[in-house]
């Protein structure tokens, strides 16, 4: 898979390194000469250019990319790169970094963004996930369909503890994608029984999050 990353700072280089280890073809783009550190990611292609310029993206052959990642420290740049990647080059998957949470509402399909990653939001979500049981934690927002990746740890007294996945009437527009049980990562099967302490990851419409949290809450006394 060919991936172009706009922004060759610490974030962009880190992403590039991981994707290269997984066998992908990586192009790093940055307009600052000081950011071009080929020795840090020697297996990547490097391009000294402004990713907001059509001529630069033509040179990068963006139309051949399967994914574009807008990873600069400037939200305006990330939005422009995302929009150009999607509308001018038809890139199938566009992932954008959100630096200021106040700008998160802009990172949607209208700007060509398929997945918006807010580092401050993700960090706070991981803190919440580590300390909260029974509360829904939003980890990631997908622009298409107004869906989110959310996590909830099943509390010991949850009404659904012991219930088979296939017997649960999940809310509409939600999908259980992973069960983390101890050190195991399970692909949900309809025969699997939910256990207290399970970390459940869902892709869910934002409008269904409250229903999902209610469904997985502790038993209520009559």
Automatic annotation (TrEMBL):
Coiled coil: none annotated. It holds the Pfam family TrkA_N. Keywords: Ion transport, NAD, Potassium, Potassium transport, Transport. The keyword Ion transport applies. The keyword Transport applies. GO terms for cellular component: plasma membrane. Residues 137-218 form the RCK C-terminal domain. One of its GO terms (molecular function) is potassium ion transmembrane transporter activity. It comes from the Bacteria. InterPro entries: K_uptake_TrkA, NAD(P)-bd_dom_sf, RCK_C, RCK_C_sf, RCK_N, Trk_Ktr_HKT_K-transport. Residues 1-117 form the RCK N-terminal domain. This is Trk system potassium uptake protein TrkA. It comes from Streptomyces rimosus subsp. rimosus (strain ATCC 10970 / DSM 40260 / JCM 4667 / NRRL 2234).
